[in-house]
Amino acid sequence: MSLDMEQPIVVVTINFRLGAFGFLASADLELDNRRSGDAGVGNYGIHDQILALQWVRRYIGAFGGDPELVTVVGQSAGGNLSRWAAHQELFNQAVIMLGNTFLTSRSLELQEGIYQTILAHLRTPSDMPTLDRIRRLRDVPANELLDAYIATGSPLPNWQATVDGFLLDELPRPSRIGNQQYDAYVRRIIIGHHLGPAEIAKLGWTPGKIRHLLSSYFPAELVTHMTLFYDLSDFPNE
């Protein structure tokens, strides 16, 4: 279609680490990062995304693209890329297709609870010295680490970005997008959503269960706004 409109585009698709491999964070890992000379903690998957966008800005001209006109496009979890990488000034426009509400950002304190659950699943003593715990984690086969991450028990993704004071310095504020408060270099953003991916409805969840789940991810005030907006009272408890 872009060719028919005589406005061709160059498409670059990227991969990034997910789950524990991309977003596991804890005080242990923060200490290990500092010992290695790295700032921040977690957010390894976001670093992958940023590296890919840096590559685009540097080399896209060789493929006929314009490094000063980069548009990021993401669906669901990918829709969060525009927010996670926004302050890096690596793109000018964004198309967010159903940015996942639950894939936001968490404080290190919340991430610590997930980390401790994983350690318990892997039978790693909590009183083991920090470096020994990290060394044991690195020796765990990838499939076992994945199983441990799944064992955290949430029906929703637990792999979320961490507010580390380096890559991300604040918890997300949906009102910024709602009020069109973008960074100066972002020209425009297109946002869309639909009800199709609401698979949670198939799990037989009642409004009470949904509110309880939301409260584990969001502040009470935001939970109130969300439940009023979607009017959970319209749905039966049976």
TrEMBL record:
Keyword Hydrolase: yes
Gene3D superfamilies: alpha/beta hydrolase
Domain of life from the UniProt record: Eukaryota
GO MF entry, a single one: hydrolase activity
SUPFAM superfamilies in the record: alpha/beta-Hydrolases
Keywords in alphabetical order: Hydrolase
Record-annotated Carboxylesterase type B domain positions: 7-180
EC number: 3.1.1.-
Coiled-coil region: none
InterPro entries the record matches: AB_hydrolase_fold, CarbesteraseB, Carboxylesterase_B_AS, Type-B_Carboxylest/Lipase
Keyword Hydrolase: yes
The family this protein is said to belong to: Belongs to the type-B carboxylesterase/lipase family.
Name of protein: Carboxylic ester hydrolase
Lineage: Eukaryota, Fungi, Dikarya, Ascomycota, Pezizomycotina
